[in-house]
């Protein structure tokens, strides 16, 4: 029986190969990806070699832009079958508009047979967004958890297949609230989620790969020491204590292994993923780090053009108000009580434009500076533009919220709601638009 070869691309991306069948999972061929997620450890890609790939299928676990990228898919043959777990028809339409002729929806627990490999999507905790992959080949069972959380019923279902030969486990947690609202930073010694020991012990894997989250922000970013609390060293130490009979195996980008019922052995690396510099790097969390002023962060970004600036200013003066009035405020929101919200927008030179709005429930109106704000939001103008025009995600926008009471929900922030409520597929739509414009220009 030939081995199952498992190769790491980047983040949650893998190549599975068995008896002539090659399948790509969540392939990302970009660095940085998702606008400013920089590969960690660093890599570059040989795009000419990637364009020569002829995979038997691509499987995409969910619609987030660090898993489904139009610019990465654009490098693959258009006859490649694309299997996607997504509840929104818009993303299927975008992939077809890119030129792919065989785009199929995945359903939980419905097996898909591709050559010598069977893939079974499994239910994640947030079934409206994520899925996991159960991969069967050569008598082996591999669970790719991607970066989802385990549903209790799914765990019971998967326990029936224990012991698993390998589990690709999303080892890194992210402290998004800590960087968006630093006054709420948890601090303290980072701990692995309390449910993980029970889950991993139930699965009884032979091998555990710390998977997903192979990225950092820009080299100057304070996020690199505040957003990622878990190290590879901690993960290996604690998982090793929970599972003394298992082996924790780190797979850096390009690294490949041959898995058999008897062993896991090194295999030839992916030739089109090119490591750059030291590869066994680790995260360095600093619970006491002081965030720099937003004006300093804004100085790292290139100035906007006059047209781009005008788009942002028009949004702050009118578009944001229109969008807010269209939405329905969640129950028990902080903004059900009348308050003044201040939005501060910083340009590349550190200059700030401040906007104040009186908010009461679903109503909003611009006001002067007579009354002090009780909720403040800051953002670099370059990132606000990226959110409006380029589909940038919240995690990388350097938005900062202050003044919000401890019992208020940070995601009720008016700018967050206006940018991201009902904004499905904005990143992929922006990518598709750029790709079409480039083709027309050529």
CATH class descriptor name of the largest domain = Alpha Beta
Q: Which second-level CATH architecture of the largest domain applies?
A: 4-Layer Sandwich
Q: Which shape, going by the Cα principal axes?
A: globular
In which order are the strands of the major sheet placed?
A: 8-7-6-3-2-1-17-18
CATH topology of the largest domain: Metallo-beta-lactamase, Chain A
How many helical elements? 12
CATH superfamily membership of the largest domain? Ribonuclease Z/Hydroxyacylglutathione hydrolase-like
Low-confidence stretches: none
Describe, in short, the structure shown:
The protein is built from twelve helices and 24 strands. It is α/β, with parallel strands linked by helices.
Characterization of this structure:
Helix content is 24%, strand content 24%. The chain has 2 domains: 4-275, Metallo-beta-lactamase, Chain A (4-Layer Sandwich), CATH 3.60.15; 294-441, Nonspecific Lipid-transfer Protein, Chain A (2-Layer Sandwich), CATH 3.30.1050.10. Strand 7 (82-84), helix 3 (89-97) and strand 8 form a beta-alpha-beta unit. The strands form 5 sheets. It has an 8-stranded mixed β-sheet, covered by helices on one side. Strands 9-10-11-12-13-14-16 form a 7-stranded mixed β-sheet. The chain is built from 12 helices and 24 strands. The radius of gyration is 23 Å and the shape is globular. It is an alpha/beta fold.
Question: What is the secondary structure topology, with strand pairs?
Answer:
Elements: E1 4-8, E2 14-18, E3 21-25, E4 38-39, E5 43-45, H1 47-51, E6 57-60, H2 70-73, E7 82-84, H3 89-97, E8 103-105, E9 112-114, E10 117-123, E11 131-137, E12 140-144, H4 152-159, E13 166-170, H5 176-180, H6 196-203, E14 207-211, E15 215-216, H7 232-242, E16 247-248, E17 256-259, E18 264-267, E19 273-275, H8 294-298, H9 306-326, E20 339-346, E21 352-360, E22 363-367, E23 375-380, H10 381-389, E24 400-402, H11 414-420, H12 426-441
Helix pairs in contact: 9-10
């Amino acid at each position: 029986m030939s081995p199952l070869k498992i190769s790491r691309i980047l983040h949650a991306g893998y190549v599975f190969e068995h008896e002539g069948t090659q399948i790509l999972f969540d392939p990302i061929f970009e660095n940085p990806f998702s606008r400013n997620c920089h590969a960690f450890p660093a890599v570059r890609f040989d795009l000419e070699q990637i364009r020569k790939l002829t995979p038997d299928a691509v499987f995409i676990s969910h619609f987030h832009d660090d898993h489904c990228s139009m610019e990465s898919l654009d490098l693959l043959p258009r006859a490649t079958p694309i299997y996607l777990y997504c509840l929104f028809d818009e993303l299927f339409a975008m992939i077809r508009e890119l030129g792919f002729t065989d785009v199929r929806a995945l359903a939980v627990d419905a097996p898909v047979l591709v050559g010598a490999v069977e893939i079974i999507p499994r239910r994640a905790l947030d079934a409206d967004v994520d899925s996991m992959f159960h991969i069967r080949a050569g008598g082996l069972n591999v669970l790719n958890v991607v970066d989802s959380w385990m549903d209790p019923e799914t765990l019971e279902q998967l326990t029936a297949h224990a012991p698993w030969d390998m589990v690709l486990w999303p080892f890194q947690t992210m402290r998004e609230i800590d960087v968006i609202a630093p006054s709420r930073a948890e601090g303290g010694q980072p701990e692995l989620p309390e449910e993980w020991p029970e889950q991993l012990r139930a699965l009884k894997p032979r091998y555990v790969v710390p998977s997903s989250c192979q990225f950092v922000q820009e080299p100057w970013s304070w996020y690199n020491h505040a957003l990622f609390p878990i190290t590879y060293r901690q993960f290996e130490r604690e998982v090793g204590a929970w599972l003394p009979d298992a082996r924790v195996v780190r797979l850096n980008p390009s690294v490949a292994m041959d898995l058999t019922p008897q062993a896991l052995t090194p295999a030839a690396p992916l030739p089109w993923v090119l490591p750059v510099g030291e590869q066994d790097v680790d995260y360095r969390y600093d619970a006491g780090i002081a965030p720099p002023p937003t004006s300093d962060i804004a100085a790292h970004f290139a100035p906007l053009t006059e047209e781009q600036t005008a788009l942002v200013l028009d949004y702050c003066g009118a578009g944001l108000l229109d969008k807010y009035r269209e939405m329905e405020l969640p129950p028990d929101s902080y903004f059900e009580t009348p308050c003044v919200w201040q939005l501060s927008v910083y340009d590349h030179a550190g200059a700030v434009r401040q906007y104040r709005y009186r908010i009461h429930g679903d109503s909003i109106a611009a006001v002067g500076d007579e009354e002090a704000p009780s909720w403040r939001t800051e953002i670099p103008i370059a990132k606000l533009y990226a959110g409006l025009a380029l589909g940038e995600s919240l995690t990388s926008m350097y938005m900062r919220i202050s003044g919000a009471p401890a019992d208020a929900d940070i995601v009720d922030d008016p700018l967050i709601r206006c940018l991201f409520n009902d904004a499905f597929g904005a990143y992929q739509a922006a990518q598709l638009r750029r790709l079409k414009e480039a083709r027309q220009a050529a």
